[in-house]
From TrEMBL:
Phylogenetic placement of the source organism: Bacteria, Pseudomonadati, Pseudomonadota, Gammaproteobacteria, Lysobacterales
Organism: Dyella psychrodurans
Protein name, as recorded: ABC transporter permease
Localization in the cell: Cell membrane
Membrane topology: Multi-pass membrane protein
Example of a GO cellular component annotation carried by this entry: plasma membrane
GO molecular function, one term: transmembrane transporter activity
Residue intervals passing through the bilayer: 21-41, 313-335, 356-389, 401-421
Amino acid sequence: MLAYYLRLGLHSLRRNPILTALMVMAVGFGVASSMTTYAVFRAVSGNPLPDKSTQLFAPQIDVWGPDSRARGRDIPDALTYKDATALMHEHKAARQTAIYPVGFTLVPRDAAREPFAVSGYAAYADFFPMFEVPFLYGSGWNAAQDEARATVVVISSKLNQQLFGGANSVGQTVHLDDHDYQVIGVAADWNPRPRFYDVNNSSGFTDPPDFFLPFTRAIDTQTETAGNDNCFGSGGRKPGFDGWLQSECAWVSYWVELPDAAAVRAYRSYLLGYADEQRQAGRFHWPSYVTLRNLTEWMDYERVVPPETRISLVLSLGFLLVCLVNTVGLMLAKFMRRAGEIGVRRALGASRREIWLQYLAEAAIVGVSGGLAGVMLTGLGVLGVGLVFEPDIARLAHINLGLVGLTLLCSLVATLGAAFYPTWRASRVQPAWQLKSH
């Protein structure tokens, strides 16, 4: 019977091509607008490290006091150098790393090539296993090399392609500013979106870093941060690089890996105890305040998802609702114009359920057709999303089989939902009235 109802539906739709086209396009445009904005929202709000997001935590320590909050600031979203190195030294977590962005000028070995700017991060050895960085060649450095301030570097696959043609470059030398660094590893194509470990310095959707080098080495060469340097209440700091390191300026991102709830409780207690020690030593003059947020909580705290993506998604859903309301009106008009036909079928013995299924099958055809139109329009929408969103965000949106399937499913479900009232009305047509009037 379903095949019979589908044939009846196709025949009915062909009888009114203009009305059918209006319904299909209404559904298609509504679904396409929703799926286009959903593709962007999904790209910027996804979990960048789902298998470890509940084990990675970013600690915060209030080094600015209540005066900063009175002026509308929260506690700093980074640590001072003093706090970061103290936490690293005490090593109370399973793994931990301090991180800050740096920038250099790379001088190629080929004298015919011009030097160019590169950007990357200074970090500790635990960075690579903590964040599951994949490698094409070699590996990261170890804790002993952190202590030795080793002149080693991990470069990206893109930089490896530029400098060494993609070959295994482990053991080769790269010249960054005035120093030579030995390549110890080549990272594979790795750039989690959002870049959760540095959202306090960037949007989280920029190009992958070119390199990683030891934090201790960057400090040894007096390399300043290429990111934010928040110095609220540190106007009286001593001059020079050492004065900056000993100031209350917050610029070091810090992450710890805590494998279970007991480790989280222990580390939170340790963090509060550390802040109490600093207060008792006279560094702070306010009640100790610390926080410990896991990866997903951290991204929410940093408002990683751009507000315009949420607004666009809500507006597109509203547009879909308007399109479905119009579809309801078109279906109701189409079905009720066939009241006489429905009355004859009911008089010949068709049940209300059979009438309902017949017109629901017709609505399903509209839904599938609208879905196919929606897929094509979504493709165009994804191509043009750069007209609305920033390029770093727009290029994240893409069409895949999952989105195509979701578009078709959304179109079918939305159309069947919109058809509920028109098909119900059609099944309630009274055959006696229709036979008498016709």
